[in-house]
């Protein structure tokens, strides 16, 4: 592993830098806080600490003392306390005695086992022999019984023959010969049966004797093997005891390794050999190919690598990153970990289902569409008023403070055809809205006031248009004013490389007046001309595609999204997928609130029926399968959450030391609710930008819609203030806020909100203390006092010398002492202050080296209120 710094090592092992430096010094290594530490130095420190914590020698004697106190009653009113002390000493056996005792016990155990086995084998042999004898006896008895039966039958047959002979008449010679032949045949068969039975009995007896002999031989062999094993074990024990002292140093080292790694060593080399598996370790490391998506947890990565999670965590710790099993890693980090562990990776696309869903119906015939024009410019330069004149409406009157705080989308029917206008806010806080407007548009109209010229947001609008690659038309407004100076506007814009066609550039300039209507027709003609040059086309048929311009939560209608359709057709009843939200379009309305059934390209509509408030700027697409839309929305939500967790973890790791060094940072917790998504985004960004190194804005909760009981509870739990922008709190939320005494503020203009939050943050700043000189006295003479020491006779040359304030003594304009006055006198009286031009006697506390010509400077510490 590479060398690490003292600070990093101290952080990893959880100790302070000073303590770690001291431990290195005790180990004989001189280090300072900024030095690097290598592996050898770490090992030396570890050895030193192990010895220091008692790994060298264990105590051989332990003494326990016990003291008990009891009270005895002696007489009626007398008590005597009796103290009994007991002392017991335990002496530890030496290691040699302990090992000899263990060896003797082991030998006795093995001998006992061998004796028991031998007895068991002898018993088994005796039983086998007895069984064989029993079998032979039974065979002899059976043979004897058979012979007796045969003799009995022969006797009976003889008697029967004699009886027949007496009863029957005399047989002929032929009959006698026949009977004799039958008798001989019967006798032959009987003898054959007897011989067969005898042979069978002999074979069985022989087989039983052979089995008994084999069993005895097997028992004898096993007994010999057990005896050899026991002798070998005893020899090994004796060998270990004889080499104990020679191995003492090695054993000590092994014990240190054991303590440091917390692993138990096996006492003998061959112990447990019979329990080992027959698995052969691979000769070469297995190289796996891991498929990585946008995010992956540590546990999932370990599973794909077929290793334990702690191996992955160990690798990440070596790389300098602390991780847990459930931590989400981004793709870049996962790639580094896989490469570090010697495996290969393959980046996969998690959006296959999404792309398949959105790829449906992308082919079709394209037709000319209306241009989408965004009006941009500095705040209060007349963007909305110009659009009002074009629309013949009064939109600006309805905006709080006369400034636009939402993106307005309008479709205007002019003599030159249809034009869709997007009106963006000009305030500095709405940067994201302007950028979104520039990306969703075909032409940008830059409105610049003729009397005001180029301002900060004008420059920003030019940058947004240039970044989006959109053509720019400049409308120089307020030409009806006497102070109007269009040439100044052209000159200032030329510095931003926006040069008019008159001056040889490529940008059209139109002088207009939103009040009188001057030049508006020329502006519309310029828009149509630019649209013809761009040759704007889109699919008129097929599933609709577009972009979410703005979104909000309406109390009566639910989530409402303003969608600009860019291709295809959006119909009521279509399934619309907008970022993490989806739903069936229940109703569509135009900018005037009229219901619409179909919206074609370049048409802005308000859509109702989504599952939630979509994020402004997300793509909106019509899909056919609602189940797939739900899957894609859920997957996007999960991916966004995992990416957020991965970023948070990365930020935590990167800022860990910075946060430790910065110390305590005051936090202003805010719960923010606004009427539309764009306002939430703009206000959040503006407030976070106010954060400083001392005071930080922390937005604990934000959302679209009214302030609910949940928001109030969240504010109470986190000690936050609640800000409502164009929204109000319901009755339940107000009760909670009043009960918890939480600060609730309503705003309708973004300036006021930001200014008040800035003021609140300024109040949280630690005050600054400034030293202010209030008087200066020159030493003219020095007197000695037996009580007070040196007394300086002074003339006050500037300001006032006050007794209660701190002072500095200056010699040749250099501060030589800083302290306080011990006494201040005018003539013989003690006084509190002496003014300019008067003489006085000054005694400086704990300082007697005052000389003629010194100056005594009196100052006071003034608290200065800080502002952000």
List strands and helices in order, with pairings.
Layout: E1 4-5, H1 6-13, H2 17-26, E2 36-37, H3 39-52, E3 61-74, E4 78-91, H4 95-167, H5 173-242, H6 248-261, E5 289-292, E6 295-297, H7 298-305, H8 309-318, E7 328-330, H9 331-340, E8 344-347, H10 352-358, E9 366-368, E10 372-377, H11 383-391, E11 408-414, E12 417-423, H12 431-439, E13 443-449, H13 456-468, E14 472-477, H14 486-494, E15 508-511, H15 520-534, E16 537-539, E17 545-554, E18 558-567, E19 570-571, E20 575-578, E21 581-584, E22 587-589, E23 595-596, E24 598-599, E25 603-608, E26 619-623, H16 626-654, H17 656-662, E27 666-674, H18 677-689, E28 695-704, H19 709-718, E29 721-725, H20 731-740, E30 744-747, H21 750-764, E31 768-785, E32 789-802, E33 806-811, E34 814-826, E35 829-830, E36 833-835, E37 839-844, E38 855-864
Parallel strand pairs: 5-8, 10-12, 10-13, 13-14, 14-15, 27-28, 27-29, 29-30
Antiparallel strand pairs: 1-2, 3-4, 6-7, 9-16, 11-12, 17-18, 17-26, 18-25, 19-24, 20-21, 20-26, 22-23, 22-25, 31-32, 31-38, 32-36, 32-37, 33-34, 33-38, 34-35, 34-37
Helix pairs in contact: 4-5, 7-8, 12-13, 19-20
């Amino acid at each position: 592993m590479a060398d690490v710094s003292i600070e990093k090592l101290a952080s990893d092992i959880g100790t302070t830098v000073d303590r770690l430096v001291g431990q290195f010094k005790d180990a004989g290594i001189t280090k300072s806080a900024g030095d690097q530490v290598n592996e050898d130095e770490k090992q030396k420190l570890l050895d030193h600490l192990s010895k220091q914590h008692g790994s060298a020698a264990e105590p051989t004697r332990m003494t326990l003392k016990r003291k008990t106190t009891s009270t005895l009653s002696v007489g009626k009113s007398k008590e005597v306390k009796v103290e009994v002390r007991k002392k017991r000493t335990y002496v530890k056996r030496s290691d040699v005695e302990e090992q000899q005792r263990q060896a003797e016990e082991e030998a006795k155990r093995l001998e006992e086992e061998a004796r028991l086995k031998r007895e068991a084998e002898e018993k088994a042999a005796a039983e086998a022999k007895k069984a064989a004898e029993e079998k032979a006896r039974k065979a002899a008895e059976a043979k004897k019984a058979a012979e007796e039966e045969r003799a009995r039958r022969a006797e009976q047959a003889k008697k029967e023959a004699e009886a027949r002979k007496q009863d029957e008449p005399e047989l002929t010679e032929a009959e006698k010969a026949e009977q004799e032949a039958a008798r001989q045949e019967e006798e032959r068969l009987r003898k054959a049966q007897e011989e067969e039975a005898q042979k069978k009995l002999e074979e069985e007896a022989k087989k039983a004797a052979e089995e008994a002999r084999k069993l005895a031989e097997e028992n004898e062999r096993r007994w010999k093997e057990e005896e050899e094993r026991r002798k070998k074990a005893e020899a090994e024990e004796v060998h270990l005891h004889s080499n104990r002292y020679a191995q003492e140093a090695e054993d000590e080292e092994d014990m240190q390794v054991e303590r440091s790694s917390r692993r138990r060593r096996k006492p003998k080399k061959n112990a447990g050999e019979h329990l080992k598996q027959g698995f052969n370790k691979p000769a070469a490391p297995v190289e796996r190919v891991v498929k990585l998506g946008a995010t992956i947890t540590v546990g999932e990565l370990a599973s794909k690598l077929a290793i334990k999670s702690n191996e992955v965590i160990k690798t990440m710790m070596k790389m300098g990153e602390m991780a847990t099993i459930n931590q989400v890693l981004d793709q870049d980090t996962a790639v580094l970990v896989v490469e570090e562990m010697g495996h290969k990776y393959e980046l996969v696309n998690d959006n296959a289902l999404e792309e398949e869903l959105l790829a449906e119906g992308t082919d079709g015939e394209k037709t000319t569409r209306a241009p989408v024009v965004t009006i941009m410019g500095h705040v209060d330069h007349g963007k909305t008023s110009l659009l009002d004149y074009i629309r013949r409406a009064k939109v600006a009157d309805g905006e709080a403070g006369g400034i636009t705080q939402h993106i307005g989308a309008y479709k205007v029917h002019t003599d030159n055809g249809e034009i869709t206008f997007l009106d963006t806010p000009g305030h500095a806080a709405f940067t994201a809205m302007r950028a979104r407007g520039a990306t969703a548009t075909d032409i940008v109209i830059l409105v610049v006031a003729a009397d005001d010229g180029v301002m900060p947001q004008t420059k920003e609008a030019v940058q947004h248009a240039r970044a989006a690659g959109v053509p720019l038309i400049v409308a120089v407004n307020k030409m009806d004013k006497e102070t109007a100076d269009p040439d100044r506007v052209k000159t200032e814009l030329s510095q931003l490389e926006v040069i008019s066609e008159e001056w040889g550039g490529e940008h059209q300039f139109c002088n207009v007046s939103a009040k009188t209507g001057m030049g508006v027709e020329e502006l519309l003609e310029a828009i149509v001309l630019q649209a013809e040059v761009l040759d704007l086309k889109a699919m008129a048929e097929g599933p609709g595609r577009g972009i979410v311009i703005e979104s909000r939560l309406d109390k009566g209608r639910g989530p409402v999204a303003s969608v600009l359709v860019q291709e295809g057709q959006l119909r009521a009843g279509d399934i619309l997928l907008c970022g993490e939200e989806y739903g069936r379009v229940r109703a569509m309305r135009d900018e005037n609130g009229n219901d619409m059934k179909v919206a074609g390209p370049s048409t802005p509509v308000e859509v109702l029926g989504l599952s939630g408030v979509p994020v402004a700027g997300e793509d909106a697409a019509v899909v056919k399968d609602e189940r797939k839309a739900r899957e894609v929305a859920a997957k996007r939500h999960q991916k966004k959450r995992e990416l957020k967790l991965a970023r948070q973890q990365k930020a935590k790791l990167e800022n860990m030391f910075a946060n430790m060094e910065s110390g305590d940072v005051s936090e202003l917790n805010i719960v923010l609710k606004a009427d539309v998504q764009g306002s939430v985004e703009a206000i959040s960004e503006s407030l976070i930008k106010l954060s400083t190194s001392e005071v930080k804005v922390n937005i604990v909760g934000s959302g679209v819609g009214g302030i609910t009981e949940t928001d109030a509870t969240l504010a109470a739990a986190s000690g936050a203030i609640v800000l409502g922008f164009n929204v109000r709190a319901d009755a339940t939320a107000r009760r909670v806020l009043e009960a918890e005494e939480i600060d609730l503020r309503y705003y309708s203009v973004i300036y006021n909100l930001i200014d008040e939050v800035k003021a609140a943050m300024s109040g949280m700043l630690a005050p600054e203390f400034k030293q202010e000189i209030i008087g200066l006295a020159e030493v003219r003479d020095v007197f000695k006092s037996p009580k007070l020491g040196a007394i300086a006779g002074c003339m006050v040359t500037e300001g006032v010398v006050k007794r209660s304030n701190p002072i500095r003594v200056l010699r040749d304009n250099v501060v030589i002492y800083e302290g306080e006055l011990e006494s201040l006198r005018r003539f013989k009286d003690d006084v509190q202050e002496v003014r300019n031009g008067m003489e006085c006697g000054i005694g400086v506390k704990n300082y007697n080296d005052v000389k003629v010509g010194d100056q005594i400077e009196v100052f006071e510490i003034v608290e200065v209120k800080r502002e952000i």
